[in-house]
Design goal:
Radius of gyration: 20 Å
Strand content: under 5%
Order of helices and strands: HHEHHEHEHEHEHHEEHH
Largest sheet: 3 strands, antiparallel
Bound molecules: protoporphyrin IX containing FE, magnesium ion
Low-confidence stretches: 1-19
Mean pLDDT: 94
Number of helices: 11
Length: 329
């Protein structure tokens, strides 16, 4: 094998073609998947541990290697999730439901509950997952998948693209307003709802095609099988949530939610919105994270500070001032 070291991917492709067949092995008992088709796929193929337990640094490396997610976005999203859903002492987070494999529970109200945990990162009006109110916020819902396909056929001639993304984002928000009395669309979900609408375009389109048109066969592989399509090439350069304006502008909406009854959408002026990005960061730290960890001490406080520092590194080029809710070490 040493003699292969100098060969590029093309040469390896010819010499050992079977290496590139990337059918993932089936799930083993106890392997966990969750609400994110991107991370699920990375776990299926071993870019992340197959059991679904990962550290934020493993997630940053995996989303870059597998999908070419731009580094600062990867850092920001991975550490945001870890801070609210992960175990800060063992440095492990479940990409789905709560698992003892991430270690002993933190002091309440923190739960280290994994990505399925509602309303700290996961939120309502997902494209292919139901609202938490209806009982399952993490498994693919076949009715919603059918709608994803139908919209891609009607608005994208068989591809998921920015036009489809805008229509489907609007549709899912209107459905939640009309059916979910506890529907919430405030920061951070206000952002992630739009960001996730463009992720399939940024990351699931084959890098050789690179035309912002996700065909339904590739989409099915990711969403239905948590699996790379056969012979998939990742994006041919670092990708961000570019195009979010094309999803937002056809149907602008302010952050808010229903107030205990369906069809009562009420704007929440305290939530961050697209005109105030630093408030996303500030509210996430001061409300969401401090809500989970009101008075940490000792190693837990140090772990929070370490992870808060990494989290801030993900946006330190946005001109937001770093905040230190637990003091500086
Ligand atoms: C949804 C986490 C990276 C694609 C989600 C959700 C979470 C999550 C918690 C559920 C939110 C919700 O819909 O309620 C993360 C974390 C990442 C990451 C922590 C670390 C960087 C990625 C990547 C991709 C991706 C690299 C694409 C390759 C998606 C998509 C959805 C989603 C398409 C929306 C699913 C839907 O609405 O049905 N992600 N994600 N994510 N994620 Fe990720
Ligand atoms: Mg959701």
């Amino acid at each position: 094998y040493g003699s292969l070291a100098g060969f590029g991917q093309e040469a390896l492709n010819i010499i050992i073609p079977t290496l590139l067949i990337r059918e993932p092995p089936p799930l083993r008992p106890g392997d966990i998947r969750g609400p994110c088709p991107g991370l699920n796929t990375l776990a299926s193929h071993g870019y992340l541990p197959r059991n679904g337990m990962a550290s934020p640094s493993q997630i940053v490396a995996a989303v870059q290697e597998g999908f070419n997610m731009e580094n600062s976005l990867a850092v920001f999203v991975a550490y945001a999730a870890h801070l609210v859903d992960g175990n800060l002492l063992t440095d492990l987070m479940s990409i789905g439901g709560k698992s003892h494999l991430t270690g002993p529970d933190p002091p309440p109200p923190a739960t280290a509950g994994g990505l399925n945990t509602h309303a700290v990162f996961e939120g309502d009006a997902s494209m292919t997952r139901g609202d938490f109110f209806f009982g399952n916020n993490h498994d693919l819902d076949t009715t919603l998948w059918d709608q994803f396909v139908d919209f891609s056929v009607r608005f994208g001639a068989g591809n998921y693209n920015f036009t489809v993304a805008a229509e489907l984002r609007h549709q899912r928000i209107q459905e939640s307003i009309a059916t979910n009395p506890s529907f919430s669309l405030v920061s951070p979900r206000y952002y992630t709802a739009f960001v996730e609408s463009v992720f399939p375009i940024a990351f699931f389109v084959d890098g050789r095609k690179n035309d912002s048109q996700l065909d339904l066969s590739a989409a099915s592989s990711f969403f239905l099988n948590n699996s790379f399509p056969p012979d998939f090439f990742r994006a041919n350069g670092p990708r961000t949530a570019k195009g979010i304006d094309q999803v937002f502008e056809p149907y602008p909406i302010l952050p808010g939610g229903n107030v205990g009854k369906i069809n009562t959408y009420t704007v929440d002026p305290t939530s961050a919105d697209f005109s105030n990005f630093c408030l996303l960061y500030t509210n996430f730290v001061n409300e969401t994270i401090r809500g989970l960890y009101p008075e940490p001490t000792g190693v837990l406080r140090r772990a929070l500070n370490t992870n808060l520092n990494y989290f801030y590194q993900g946006i330190n080029n946005s001109g937001c001032t770093q905040i230190f809710p637990y003091g500086k070490d």
